[in-house]
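Record filed here:
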Amino acid sequence: MNHSVAVIAAHPDDEVLGCGGTIAKWANEGCDVNILLMTSGEGSRQGKIGRDLECAEQARLSAAERSADFLNSRSVTTLDFPDNRMSDSSILEVVQAIEAFIDKHRPRIVLTHHAGDVNVDHRITHDAVLAACRPQPGFCVQELLFFEVASSTEWNTPASRQVFSPTYFCDISDTLKAKLTALDFYKEEMRPFPHPRSIDGVKALANWRGCSIGVSSAEAFMVGRIIR
């Protein structure tokens, strides 16, 4: 496997929670993996203003860079859309930012959020990626996959939105440890077990997704589109 891959996520840590094991696996197999993060992930935090907020943002962006480097990603780019308020932005602006990233890196595969996540930034990112990846003649993107993010995807209810029902799996038995180590860079975002966004929770989900396909650990995706 030797393709260009784009991972487009709303917040720093979503990329590792959603597909950190796949990033490491595909990068190790020769793929150029470029990551786009839409927000700093800190703007909505209560009690953080001025210098405190600036320091928190810098720490989170540093975590994103260290995590991406550890997973052997080619690059990580962070935009400044408002955290947990992407709905305040023009959807056209969001789409155009993603289009510019895709035009720069020309990915064959794009991974992004599931449409039914509880977090509004996840849903807006999903919708904007769909618009930016319209399958026009000669378009570079041939595969579109949607990942799950612990403490957002599974908190959806069937009565509210589409439930995450995976149809595509990536065996991360050899890279689960790398994913968990990458999450340690985001330790301020992690929670104690039994919160789903705990190290034990993430590991349990990977093990369960692996059991679904007969391997020890996996990450699961819903297929948006595959062109062959």
Remarks:
- The first helix runs from residue 14 to 28.
- The longest strand covers residues 218-226.
- Residues 109 and 143 are 5 Å apart (CA to CA).
- Strands lie at 4-9, 32-37, 75-78, 109-113, 143-147, 168-171, 218-226.
